[in-house]
Amino acid sequence: MAERALKLEIATPQRLVLSQEVSLVTVPGGEGEFGVLPGHTPFLTTVRPGRLEYEAQGKREVLAVGWGYAEVGPHKVLILTEMAKRPGEINRDEVRREFEDINRHLAGEITPEEREAFTKRLERVKAQLKVLESA
Questions:
Q1: Contact at 8 Å (CB) between 44 and 29?
Q2: Hey, what's the torsion of the CAs at 122, 102, 117, 111, to 10 degrees?
Q3: Cα torsion angle, 86, 51, 99, 118, sign
Q4: For residues 4 and 85, what is the distance between their CA atoms, to the nearest angstrom?
Q5: Torsion-angle region of residue 17: left (phi > 0), alpha (psi -120 to 50) or beta?
Q6: pTM of the model
Q7: Which of 108, 112, 36, 26 is nearest to 65 (CA)?
Q8: Spatial separation of the C-alpha atoms in residues 100 and 26, rounded to whole Å
Q9: Cα–Cα distance between 21 and 28 in angstroms, integer?
Q10: Is the dihedral angle over the CA atoms 35, 61, 133, 101 positive or is it negative?
Q11: Consecutive H or E run containing 70
C-alpha cells in the first residue's frame, strides 16, 4: 500500500461495496461530518445517512450511505452500513416517488413507531437525493 494511502472498505449486510486505496475520506458521522487522512488517530463512531466522499487516484467519488459504524485507523477506514449506493445505482424516479410517499405518510395520522420508521427511511432517501444532486 502506498505510504500516503488509506484502505477504504464499505460493506452492507448484502455485499462488499468498496475495497480501495484512497487518499482522503469524508464521512457523515453521528456527531457530524469528519475527514480522514492517512495516519489518522484510531477511533470508532457511528455513521448517519448522508453523502460519503472519497478521493482515489486524484478523482473524487461519492456514495449515499445509511446508518452504521465506522472504524478508523491510521491505514484503514472500515464502514459497516445498512445502505451504500453509488450514483449510478440510484434510480432518481424511484427515490423521488419514495420521498413523496414517505412525506404523505408523515403528514397523516400515524403511531409514534410508524413515525420513527418513516423518518429513518426519509433520511436514507435524502442521502440518495443529495448524492444524485452532486453527481
A1: no
A2: 140
A3: positive
A4: 26
A5: alpha
A6: 0.88
A7: 26
A8: 29
A9: 19
A10: negative
A11: strand 68-72
